[in-house]
Amino acid sequence: MTPHGVGTAVIVTSLLAAAWCLVTTLRKRAIGIGELVAMAIAQALVMAQVVISVVHLARGQRPAELVTFVGYLIAIFLILPVAGVLARLEPTRWGALIATIGCVVVAVLIVRLDQVWTGVG
Amino acid sequence: MARQSGHEPLDRAARKPGGSAGPRPTNAGPGRVLVAVYGLFALAATARAGVQIATKFHEAPLAYLLSALAGVVYILATVALARSERRFALLCCSVELAGVLAVGTASVIDRAAFPDATVWSGYGQGYGFVPLVLPVLGLLWLRRTGRA
């Protein structure tokens, strides 16, 4: 059992946020406050996941690939804020597409984080 | 769309000597999505190569050096697209396309030479084939913005 308590919650919320941003993209709109709140909720769960992972590391547990794992932790922490800022800089449907991609990438990174901890893949 | 407004300084950068009145900047609208995805891959490929080279270079030197090369190309392409350096962006995207095709083909023909995956092996299979699609989108985007 890998120590990734909220991983599933992150995947679900980030994919829901991605779906919302994708709909906005297809409607040729810029993202509004609603999408940003959805991304913020996903980010809060990401931060919880990062804290959980750091606590496990601090207690002496070690993932299969430590350096890669820490790299993924840093990346997953930054993706949504950066995507949000870029989406606001480009207040068109293309900004919404950036937000969509950011949300999907977070879901993928959570899966990779799990794989890097267990050493699979 | 906001392409016409709010990006004057960047527009000016796009019209440096050589680029007459015509070409549009490569960093607005869909271009900003490209820059974002290129930036992501620049980070991913460079960081991955860095870790591989630092921790287990002897296992697959060729694959890891190619990972590093891919990372450098992604960084340069990101910068070129973000700054509307059209010719340099064209060069980067072309090298990238050639790289993903060459490494992809080589990794399929001779699996033994690539014991560990690179960003480009299997035509970018490990990354959802995005490395194969990205340079094509980049070249199409450069062509599209090049026609004033």
Concise summary:
The complex is a heterodimer of chains A (121) and B (148). With 121 residues, chain A is an all-alpha fold.
Task: Please give a structural write-up.
- The complex is a heterodimer of chains A (121) and B (148).
- Chain A is an all-alpha fold and 121 residues long.
- Chain A is 79% helix and 0% strand.
- Chain A contains four helices and no strands.
- In chain A, helix 2 packs antiparallel against helix 3 (66-89) and helix 3 (66-89) packs antiparallel against helix 4.
- Helices cover 66% and strands 0% of the residues of chain B.
- Chain B contains five helices and no strands.
- In chain B, helix 2 packs antiparallel against helix 5, helix 3 (61-82) runs antiparallel to helix 4 (86-109) and helix 4 (86-109) runs antiparallel to helix 5 (130-146).
- The two termini of chain B are 17 Å apart.
- At the A-B interface, helix 3 and helix 4 of A face helix 2 of B.
